[in-house]
């Protein structure tokens, strides 16, 4: 843990007291988003202290030309960078002509931030004494509307406290912004038009290279606006537009304004009509007004929580942590738009670039399936189908043929962006997660239409890749997969990574199973897809040959599958016996030392046991867990959740709870000393899994939800809901008992600790 | 082969005819150097066509801040770049006020370049018709003096051919130069002073960061110089100084000038007295004058050739090729200065940076031992001793302790410069070559003083490294070396590379052998070194334990040592069966595909058989050669020579000759399509080895030179000399017979085809 300044609270994230050293961390933690846009918690008014400015629009990116030390054939031409978008939140404040700047004030008192997760707004308030000795109180509240997702709203109010004062509020738009993350100091935006009209302003800009057109807009309202001459109080330059609202304000009197702002983009509107699209949004906003919009915001978030909330009784920090995770996931992705995905930093920072990693399939889909309508998960799968052609091109760049598809490590539009050979070219297990997500979706929703309409083609492309990537070893008389990086990125270019080989074999079998199922049950789809993909029976036989004869490294001595060939040649010193001064090894050790050590960054063999749990006995899981976990350093934010789930299923609740703690407040307590760069959004879904799949023991078995409830001894009770095929079931677990209730009017059969039970909407089922 | 415009000639490199497309290639091929400085064959006069300007000063470099896509712990902060130095050769020419520019002339006739290797000068001549229809003849000859190695000389002459003309020659100095190879577009040079005085000019500049001070100087002489008012015909700016020499020249009359120029640097002079040092050099030059300097140059080169020449009778292209290689090696390094080394591009380009690779120890030292006084090889070994402290620091950066030394992959001052983890951190076999060179030097020269004074400490640091780098595998019950890149860089992060394990074991045994020898025979040195290095007997025992129990991968089926663990799991398709369209694989394939293929870039296991030939039987060599060569793509310039030597020793002369051809004219015929970037200097030493060790079969056995003469059927005869412990023996081989002669007055015992024979100075021994 690196910080503990966040005030524990069941529903809000709260900071009290002003500390310039935590400004950038809080800018991340208090970020707001609505799935379509996002905003770091930057101050509206000018701030000269250290700050990391960030406004983001979902799907808008810049292809930053690749920078490497030594070029390797096959590297992508660019890295898709998350773009800092034009600023719409700015409101500069002048008090008796002095510019308000918290970094320069004589004193700042009662500084308080609150991110109200229940209602979906962020408020900041403080009293500040300026250099000119005027003390003012400022209250600023803002939110990004879930209903009108191109709109943000700010209410900003200033009250002079110790004397009358001339107060000037200067709301502005600014497209002269920069990215912190840039390879070549390129200019990312080109501003085309700056327009001021009455109390409205618009800046139309477009991204370089990608040509996303964006209108950034604002409309300003103040109590005294009637008859105000905005035109003669406005200013514009080539990348900036502002309106001055100036008043003599009596001591103790509040001068407030409301700023409606946001973005209309060419992703959703005609690129030549963005200003009129912006006006439409503003019209809707102003018609409703601030209070009504806020009311609708509360309702919208209530709807989200109704489905997604997890309650924890008896541990306010755990409660705050899990809600923060659920809140951020919903701020990042609401599943309305199949062009979007879940970036690892969401709308809270620039780092990592791209929007889509295998995190989506491996960690996020279960959360969205269980807490939203199943269309949301379907949209995430559709996203990959839309990228199939690019995945085939990616594979071609690496020498594969005949429609083999390799999904990218990192992407915005389907093209690979990453450029380390050991990751880009070799961390190919990611391809397996894409197919696994189809399996997972099918198992959960029972919706076969995705397979018929899209998924089968994806599965064929992936099976083709694995068939071509495996090679026959005459020495082993088996198919081997050479030169890969597994989920444990602390091993590079290894042979026969067990996880990779296992998922490769699984992908081929999964594809063949569904080709046969389509043939038997959906002949028309089958024939259409076979023709489209030019897939012959002879090719399928060759796949089968590879799957049936895949090599898996195994230790007779330890009775475990080996993470890769030669794993036991390492010096097998456990993490417990490693000097603490050497950790985290990714900061202390050179890369070669990490590579030849036995240390595991995140679940690798155990990731396979997590995905394919039913293929193994409890004893096998226990043996592998006991073999691998002691070498695991958990230096990925995605590591503890899988181990927490497995520890829980092995009835090791203390261990499970310890792993859980490492994930749920990772950002709030800044374990990794990097929260100022943004939040770890995708790993937040892992936290949700730790409770639902770990403590709750939820699985889908034979088309039924199955639970094996457990509870950490530190908690009094916890509860969560899951949406299973449009029936919403709520489980509440207390020490010694679990109860199940159901919404709607249909009954549902579930498994509890392996026993089949029927839950009906009227009765609470208690076990 | 990519080009064949070089005119075959026994002693000169000749180009005839002007082709702008070959200008950059010729700039490399006609480069001149004298071990202390070098100069690409750039035109003296202005040229607006494609050109790669390069003037270089040995030992002067710039530490260019590392640029990577993704940083890894342990990467060096900078890459030492070979620096393009201020231009001293420039002479602009104006004919009736039109600037002479061969790229813009109406016609260029009789264009000819000659690099006279026998005498050490470069001449260029042509007739050109300018836009103003004046036709001029230009003859320019230049050389870098071997005697005064801070001095270069140019004689430049212009003759108007079709009318009288006003000719202006404007010799200049220019420090406003740039590197083509720069990571951040940094400025590499800062100019401090520009001075013009009479017919002399000086520019004092210093390198950024490294603070090398350099005075670039010139003095201009022309027949008409007496009484010429240089001062009022000179011009200077902040980075430039020029002198105008203008004359009305009659049709058919020659207007000529001599320019003396070069560099005085703070490596050899007080940095505040560089201008007076420059004046001293110019005084010596002018006192001798052009003709006398040229005469001395011829004598100096005659001295070099007297010792280093290899004659080939019956194959002018082969003769030209081998002399070109010997000439370039001598232009690059003459062994006078223990601070210098043999950069892979010498003074012919910027690429690769740094000056020292393992090439020096693995390929170059044999050449210098045999063709120079043994002090030269000793200087190369001393260079590494001077870097021992840095090598210990390099190892510490990677987590090694207790004086373990890791010599860098690339360096200027002993610090590692390279920044690919798979090379920098893992291609550690380079450390073995440093120790092997000591062994090789000792075997050849019998000079034990280097071991006593310096080498023993180097050997101890290296043995300590291998001891720490090997780890015990309980699975194999042997010591293993995990995560390395062998000489074959088409495999990365492999386990138990046979070559690396073998040389590691050898290094430890070699160190222990000499610790014991010192103890027995040089107790004082022994005790001093043991104290200085704090080396205890217990530590030595631990080394021995590692060496005695080193693991070597072996195939019982093929009866060969395996290049690394798991080598036989690959798809073993030979190069002959690989589609030609796929080659060279380093241009056609992505890196992962190269890595998982069986293809070998350069000798790896066979490199070990080359170094440690005596440890294996002829049958073992043959088996390994037949196993590995068919998978070798020879995509390193250092590959064919080792294979040529081994093919010769296996009596496969056709194969040996084919390999020889690939090396000896690599640059002249531009096999790799990159000669414009500079020459492959270090691999030229491999060509020399192909003849002396390959065809000549020279080895040192029991302290005696040993020969097994062979001759390619394509040749009538060849001969070479070697300096063995200050006795110079010449071997001449014709079809069916070999003869040996000796200089001096002492007899020498040699082995010929295994039989001991005595050569005496008076008699030719014919076999």
From TrEMBL, chains A, B:
PANTHER family: GLYCOSYL HYDROLASE-RELATED, MALTOSE PHOSPHORYLASE. Substrate binds at residues 358-359, 601-602. The keyword Hydrolase applies. Gene3D superfamilies: 1.50.10.10, Glycoside hydrolase, family 65, N-terminal domain, Maltose phosphorylase, domain 3. The lineage of its organism: Bacteria, Pseudomonadati, Bacteroidota, Flavobacteriia, Flavobacteriales. Pfam families: Glyco_hydro_65C, Glyco_hydro_65m, Glyco_hydro_65N. The active site is at 489 (proton donor). Residues 698-759 form the Glycoside hydrolase family 65 C-terminal domain. Keywords: Hydrolase. This is Glycoside hydrolase family 65 protein.
